[in-house]
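Notes from the 1:1 (GR / supervisor)

We went over the backlog. Supervisor wanted to see one worked example end to end before approving the batch request, so GR pasted a single chain during the call. The sequence is below; no edits were made to it. Supervisor asked that the structure be written out right there so they could see what the output format looks like.
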Amino acid sequence: MKKLFFAFLLAAAPVLGFAAGGGAHLDDADIDVSDQESLQRGARIFVNYCLSCHSAQYQRYNRTARDLGLTEDEVKENLMFTTDKIGDTMTIAMKPVDAAAWFGVAPPDLSVIARARGVDWLYTYLRSFYIDEARPFGVNNIVFPDVGMPHVLWELQGMQKAVFAEEDGQKVFKKFEQVTPGTMSAAEFDDAMLDLTAFLSYIGEPIQTERKRIGMWVLSFIAVFFVLAYLLKKEYWKDVH
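Structure output shown during the call:
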């Protein structure tokens, strides 16, 4: 048993380290996937800034319309730029081979990125780009060092630089300093990234809100059944000595 326990720890350690963001401090993503307005704002950011390079090939537009409280016409008018069929998935026209040639690596599909990385990781990552002239796109990321992705949200956030300090012979991140302003304030950008993170969490498991609602009914049924079963047991065994 001890050997199995330690084997499990060894197997899980790399996964836990991966999810933690490589040692970077992760901010708490206080999202609510039942907030349809937040998901709608997140969907708008996703299709405008992410969907040109990143697909979400396991999510259908008509499912998005239903879950986000939108009509199919509203989705067609505001969210559908890569297809004309409401039943299609959120794919992109760019071929993986071309993407790899242009960016060095094909941008990953984001259907389950929130489940793979975690919402805290995503929320922190989206807000942690900083100027780094040594990188091909001129930016780097505290959470994902040497990231191969440009800062596509720079117009909203503006550009910032990272301040590091030497501690025990290692370069340690301290804070960000704003270099050029964006169209949003820092608080507004944080809220927008919460909305985007919430949408990415939603497409990772569209059924999660309904699953939790059904789960409450199931637990209530089990609780009532337990009481009835206990009373029935007492009735059956009351004359047994």
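Supervisor's comment: The first strand starts at residue 56 and ends at 60.
Batch request approved.
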